[in-house]
Each structure stands twice: as C-alpha cells, then as structure tokens.
Design brief:
Blueprint (H helix, E strand, L loop, with lengths): L1 H51 L8 E7 L4 H14 L16 E6 L10 H10 L30 H7 L3 E9 L3 H7 L15 H6 L4 H12 L3 E5 L1 H4 L3 H7 L4 E3 L2 H6 L13 E4 L18 H15 L3 E7 L1 H7 L3 H21 L5 E7 L2 E2 L1 E3 L32 E6 L8 H5 L10 E4 L5 E2 L3 E6 L9 E3 L2 H20 L1
Parallel strand pairs: 1-7, 1-8, 2-15, 3-4, 3-7, 4-6, 5-6, 11-12
Antiparallel strand pairs: 2-14, 8-14, 9-13, 10-11
Helix pairs in contact: 2-13, 3-5, 3-15, 11-13, 12-13
The structure holds zinc ion.
Zinc ion binds next to α12.
Keywords: Hydrolase, Magnesium, Metal-binding, Phosphoprotein, Signal, Zinc
EC number: 3.1.3.1
Family: Belongs to the alkaline phosphatase family.
C-alpha cells in the first residue's frame, strides 16, 4: 500500500511542477522572439548613433542630472519598481536614461576618504579637482572647517565658468538650495554645514567666511546665476529682502502655484533679473509624501528648461534628485526607488523638450550606498516583497523566517524580526529593510557609480573614469561649441 501512496504523491508533485514549468516556459517562449528582436534593435540604434554623431558635434547646452546616492543597485531596483508599476514583470524595463547610447563607470573616492561624501564628490564634478569630504568647491589642500586664508583655495565651478562665458546657468534640487550638492555648483566653503548665517563656526565669523546662503544671494546671483529652484527657506529667507533690492526685476517663487503660474516667456522682463524658487523650509518632501504646495522635481525641471530654451542663449543646468540619499540613509528602499523613478521621468521630460543635436544630457550619481539586491527571487518577484522561488514559495532563511531581496550592508539596527507579520508589510512605503551591520544610520558605499549620456560630446564619456574627469569632459564638449562659433564668424 505504502509504495502506491508514495507513487501517487510523486505523481501529484511532478504534475504540479510540470504545470508551473509550462507556465514559465510559455512566458519565456512568448518572449523568445523578442529577445532576438531586441538584440537587432539595440544594434541598429547603436549603429545609427555612431553615424548620426559627427566627431565635431558641438554641445550648445548641458543638462547634468545628479541622483544623490543613486548607486548601480538603486538603478536596477528602480527600473524593476517602475516596470512593475506599469504592470510588467519589471526586469525587462529600462529607466528612460538607461536607453542613452553612452555610459561610463565613475570612481567616486574623495582626496582623503575611500568612501566619499556629497561635498567632495560634487566639488570634483563641478570644478575638475577632487577634494576632501565636507569641503565645497575648494582644492584638496583646504582643511575642513578652517576658514583662515581659505579663499585662496577656491576652485572655479562649471557654473562660474558659465557666467564668464555668457551662458545662462541654473540649479534645481529637491534638497535645501544650500545643501552640499547644490552648494558645490555656485559656492566655496571650508565646511558644508555652514549653510545659513547661524550654522557657521566661530572661526568662520572671525576670518570672514560667508554662509552658503549669503554666497547664493549676494555672490552667485550678481555674478550671473540665472535660476535656483529647491528647498531651504530656513537658511534663505533672511536674504529675500536683499534679493528683491538687488533685483527689482527678479522673480521670487514660494510654492507650486507660483511655479506653475510663472510665465517663463515674459518674466523676468530684464536680463538682470534672476529666478529664485524656494518651496519648503528644509529639504522638499519625498515624492511619496509630497504636499500639494510643493512642486515635483519634474515640474521644476519643466519650468527651468522652458525658461532657458525660450531665452535663446547657451545654458548650463544642474538638476539634483537629492532625497534618494536620505531614503537610503534611513534604510527605506521604497522611497529611494520612487525618488529614482521621478528622476528618470524628469530626464525623459528634459530629453523631450530639447534637441538631440545641441543639448548634452548627462545622468550620474555623486556616490553609492550599501544597498543590495540578492537571493534567488523568481522572475517578476515584487521588488519590495519577500523572496519567493520559481514555485512561488516563500524562501526561508536559516532562522526559518522570510527575507526581502532588498537590504543594506549596514544601517539602523532593526535586527531579525521574530514574526512573519513584520515581513507581510515589506511592500509598505515605511518598511525598513534589514541590515547586516548595526550603525546609527546607513552609510554611503565606496563602489563606482554609473554615468549615462546622450547628445553632442556624449561619446567622450566611456570606460572607467575619475569623477573629476566629468568636469573636463563637459568643458571639452562645450569648447567644441566655441570653436564652431568662431568658425562660423
Ligand atoms: Zn548621504
């Protein structure tokens, strides 16, 4: 009797496996032709890109997108997340900029740290010189927090170069406008924390280092910065009067309605009236929690490009999705992925609004995070969900508990939760992924980040590059514009 029962079980087991297998195979076979087509399409696009882009193609404008903390794993997980939001399995999806023809890997270390911070990395991208963690657009000989004699170490930023060359220039961010990444585009400071006047240390007062807020309003705007959109009223509002006195024709925006009602064709009337939009007291909200009075990154991107495209001058625009970094520091993958997807949609809009033959679009990150995606989840497994195998069974760890495919190598200690209910909420936006090493906050990673590029000069980005080379490569793409302008005179 017993062998017969065993045999029946075996048969049942085999037929279940066979059904699961055939469903999977059906899926793969349906896609079978597509894999071949994709390959052909990719090659056709590559060959077309090569033939469409002459070596002397000139960049008139550059739009540089920075995903703060947007590691390569963040890209993989975000593309699956966005694909699954659209009803796909996910893995086959591309974020918009992942279809760009040119890519490079970027080494992110600071001059004094193996694992970098945003101040040092963005300074490298903006000035062409790697520097110390915490230092804003000054050379590596500058000690952090030492104001005395520091001005001699200032390094000219891409936007400052742009003021001199009569480019329109702008910065858009979802962080405080005085935060490290945006600050490195227009300011110089021995310490990133000197954002507002009262954030400065005593030696900054004593030796005369201005706050980053003051440098924006009374330094960068008069020197030629045309547009700044982001958060950080807590540091900037003391300077609103100064802004309006200096620039009676300038434009000050305070909320989403101000931004959307801004007629970029008629305001500001005069060349010497810059645009300042400050939409929150501190950083702007995460996209998943965004209050209606705040614009999205995409809305800010649209207005900034509309404005610059309408002015008929060459322009340099830096756009930062700042809060990918903050979500990762909190060990919260859901918000990090949503912020990355919003960045991708903003890039797509920028691509749609500009011409491929005059605008170089670059998308990169300042540094990585300890974010990991692992295990053997089945194809199409919910990216925020617990790991399930090919048979759709929950995979258990050594302690008998489920686990998510996303996690962090370090961060806020949550410990292994001892109830399966904990994992039932893994797709909730407030879920915190598990961590390997307990620290007060998750840290940056030291690994390389990706760079994607499209447009004139994009082909110059390839292979493994030092982060400061991004600056020199952008100038190269632009100097071609100068050369061709001279030729035509
Ligand atoms: Zn960070």
């Amino acid at each position: 009797m017993r062998p017969i029962i065993s045999f029946l079980f075996l048969l049942l087991n085999l037929s279940c496996t066979a059904i699961a297998d055939s469903l999977l195979k059906k899926h793969w076979y349906q896609q079978g032709d597509r894999w071949l087509n994709d390959k052909v399409q990719f090659l056709e696009a590559s060959i077309k890109t090569q033939s469409d882009t002459p070596d002397n193609a000139a960049a008139k404008n550059i739009i540089l997108f920075i995903g703060d903390g947007m590691s390569i794993t963040t890209l993989t997980a975000a593309r699956i997340w966005q694909g699954q939001q659209q009803g796909l399995l996910g893995e086959e999806h591309f974020l918009h900029f992942e279809t760009f023809p040119y890519t490079a890997l970027i080494k992110t270390y600071n001059s004094n740290q193996q694992t970098p911070d945003s101040a040092g990395t963005m300074s490298a991208i903006m000035t062409g010189v790697k520097t110390r963690a915490g230092v804003i657009s000054m050379g590596p000989e500058q000690d952090r927090t030492d104001c005395k004699g520091s001005a001699q170490h200032n390094q000219k930023t891409l936007l400052e170069w742009g003021y001199e060359q009569n480019f329109d220039t702008g910065i858009v961010t979802t962080a405080r406008l005085t935060h490290a990444t945006p600050a490195a585009t227009y300011a110089h400071s021995p310490d990133r924390v000197w954002e507002g006047d009262y954030d400065r240390h005593l030696n900054a007062y004593w030796y005369g280092c201005d706050s980053i807020a003051k440098q924006l309003i009374e330094g960068a705007f008069p020197a030629g910065l045309d547009l700044a959109l982001g958060g950080g009223a807590s540091r900037l509002e003391n300077y609103y009067d100064s802004f309006q006195q200096q620039f009676p024709a300038g434009h000050l925006l305070n909320n989403q309605r101000d931004l959307l009602e801004w007629n970029t064709a008629t305001q500001p009337q005069s060349e010497d009236g810059p645009v300042l939009g400050v939409f929150s007291s501190e950083h702007m909200d995460f996209e998943m929690d965004r209050r209606r009075e705040q614009p999205s990154l995409q809305q800010m991107t649209q207005k900034a490009i509309e404005y610059f495209e309408g002015r008929n001058k060459n322009y340099l625009l830096v756009i930062e999705s700042a809060r990918i970094d903050h979500a990762h520091h909190n060990g919260n993958a859901a918000r990090a992925l949503a912020e990355t997807a919003m960045l991708a949609d903003s890039v797509q809009l920028a691509d749609d609004m500009t011409k491929d033959d005059d605008t170089l679009i670059i998308v990169t990150a300042d540094h990585s995070h300890t974010f990991v995606m692992a295990g053997y989840p089945k194809r199409g497994n919910s990216i925020l969900g617990i790991s399930k195998n090919q048979k759709n069974e929950v995979v258990l760890a050594n302690d008998g508990m489920p686990y998510t495919s996303l996690g962090y190598a370090n961060g806020k200690a949550s410990g292994r939760k001892e109830s399966t209910e904990h994992f039932a909420s893994s797709e909730d936006k407030n879920f915190h992924q598990e961590v390997g090493i307990a620290l007060p906050l998750e840290t940056h990673g030291s690994d390389d980040v990706a760079l994607h590029a499209k447009g004139p000069g994009a082909y110059l980005f390839s292979g493994l590059m030092e982060q400061n080379e991004i600056f020199h490569t952008m100038l190269q793409a632009l100097s071609r514009a100068d050369m061709s302008a001279e030729d035509s005179q």
